[in-house]
Write a structure and sequence with these properties.
This protein is α+β, with helices and mostly antiparallel strands.
Length: 244
């Protein structure tokens, strides 16, 4: 894939959910085109010796997808969560105790969200691209996404949508169904469903995601893109400039 090729975000997400190598190619391209930084601002990533040391310390294998995702995204903390270091550094990875049926062997947590962590069951660590669970030691663990590489995709898209500093952000409150109907009618759904919502693309540069009943989060690469999304979707936009 050449940088000069048109970046097909919708098709790229669909391919990424079918093939792990396509997931990494998509995330690399997304980072370069939607979230560019200067080379000097990139971190070193986490290479094989670092991950080998973590595996030896824990006494469990680390899936290929985890190693590959850490190698790619370890250099981009801005895309994995600045406030909570949403990718656990390899030297701090640990197995959390399981709660409930099927959780006895515990869960390797790699993404400690404030309200709900993400991890892989120890029983699944031998798979190259294992399923991911969410939850915690207190409330137990629930299925999240069926591929670890898909979870990395979700982490990056959600971080860009909610926190990327160079994007233009807004929140749509759609008290009536027409706002959500317009989202379905005029925006292209992505194959990736964020648990509790689904990603959509408006035009070519505005990412949206439903985030609860009649709530839509939006982020655009340009002010014009966000303005177009506001014009397209009826409802109350929280950051829209006053009219009249």
């Amino acid at each position: 894939m050449r940088v000069t090729d048109a970046f097909d975000l919708v098709g790229g997400v669909a391919a990424a959910l079918r093939d792990r190598s396509a997931a990494w190619a998509f995330l690399d391209r997304f980072a370069r085109e939607w979230a560019p930084v200067l080379p000097a601002d990139r971190g070193p990533g986490w290479d094989a010796p670092v991950m080998d040391a973590a595996s030896a310390r824990l006494g469990v294998p680390l899936p290929a997808a985890l190693r590959e995702g850490y190698a790619l995204l370890g250099a981009r903390e801005d895309l994995t969560g600045e406030l909570a270091a949403l990718l656990v550094p390899p030297n701090l990875l640990r197995v959390h105790d399981g709660v409930g049926a099927g959780d006895d062997a515990g869960v390797l947590v790699f993404h400690p969200e404030e309200n709900s962590a993400l991890g892989v069951r120890v029983a699944d660590l031998g798979q190259d691209d294992p399923p991911v669970v969410e939850g915690g030691e207190q409330d137990g663990w629930r299925p999240y996404l069926d591929r670890l590489s898909a979870a990395f995709l979700d982490i990056v898209l959600w971080q860009w949508l909610t926190d990327w500093p160079d994007a233009h952000h807004d929140v749509l409150l759609a008290p009536d169904d027409p706002g959500l109907d317009a989202l379905t009618a005029h925006c292209t759904p992505l194959a990736l469903a964020h648990p509790g919502g689904r990603y959509h693309l408006a035009a070519a540069d505005t990412l949206l995601c439903t985030a609860g009943p009649r709530v839509v989060l939006a982020a655009a690469r340009t002010a014009a893109g966000l303005a177009a999304a506001r014009a397209l979707l009826p409802g109350t936009w929280q950051q829209a400039p006053p009219t009249g």
